[in-house]
Amino acid sequence: MPELPEVETIARGVDERLRGDRIVEVWFGGHREPFKTPAARQAKGLEGRAILAVHRTGKHIVCEMDPAAQWIVHLGMTGRLLVTTPEAPVAVHTHARLTLASGRELRFVDPRRFGRLEFRDLSRSPSFSAPGADPLTVTAEEFVRLFHPRRLAIKAALLNQKLLAGVGNIYADESLFRAGIRPRRQCGRLTKAELERLRLSLIEVLEHAIELGGSSVSDYVDADGVRGFFQLEHCVYMRTGLACLDCQAPIRRIVLAGRGTHYCPRCQV
Ligand SMILES: [Zn+2]
Questions:
Q1: Are 52 and 22 in contact (CB under 8 A)?
Q2: Rounded distance from Cα 219 to ligand 1 centre (Å)
Q3: Residues 166-192: pLDDT tens digits?
Q4: Which residues belong to the active site?
Q5: Helix 4-18 with 192-214: angle, nearest 10 deg
Q6: What is the rounded distance in angstroms from the CA atom of residue 36 to the CA atom of residue 187?
Q7: Is 46 exposed, middle or buried, given 0-12, 13-18 or 19+ CB atoms closer than 10 A?
Q8: pLDDT digits (tens, 9 = 90+) for 81-121
Q9: Is 0.90 surpassed by the pTM of this model?
Q10: DSSP 8-state secondary structure symbol assigned to residue 269
Q11: What separation in Å is there between the alpha carbon of 213 and the centre of ligand 1?
Q12: How far does residue 185's CA lie from ligand 1's centre (Å)?
């Protein structure tokens, strides 16, 4: 499942390639699941519109269009966006092909069909917003206000998309390690200094991943659709039993909020 840094990287890659282009023709496949807005209405809405900019909101990719509209792409588990030439072979599980004025195509491919495509005409609907705050721009005060009143474990709170939009399992574990906080600690018992350490760790770990991803964008949305995303060097995630990179203690795994949770019993208190 693509996490926030991947989605940010893909949004930037698509923005670089498609900004200023225009959709001239739309083809949609026969499966219903990917179409949050009915396919026919979505196709009619997209045709003829110019792409002003593409950005990330939570874990969604939002294409801003002119006349005012948004095309919102959620990649789900296995969704991919490809910018291709029209001659490039069409992958199985291709659900959408948008022909652009530049002659290229934007394709949406998704084998497992958990991804979603939505169209919003902004003259009739409000613009898309994620339910939670963005972890990259949340302020110190807002972070405390979101987490301090909660009684649940901090790891579970980090995964709650209504508080922060787009933090997944990997980045929750990695940011808690960097902040030196045990995943089971109750939000309300964390000091303001600890919460601030966590906020900064989260930003650091996400931005580092985005930085690494930046160099592999061309692999991500290239003409052949070769998937070659970076692997972040994890400190704790999926390192159960291996030596902590800081103190050599073996990394532990517990299940918290239904998710495998990894931490160092010595570095995290
Ligand atoms: Zn350690």
A1: no
A2: 34
A3: 898 989 999 999 999 999 999 999 999
A4: 2-3, 59, 259
A5: 40
A6: 35
A7: buried
A8: 999 999 999 999 999 999 999 999 999 999 999 999 999 99
A9: no
A10: -
A11: 27
A12: 17
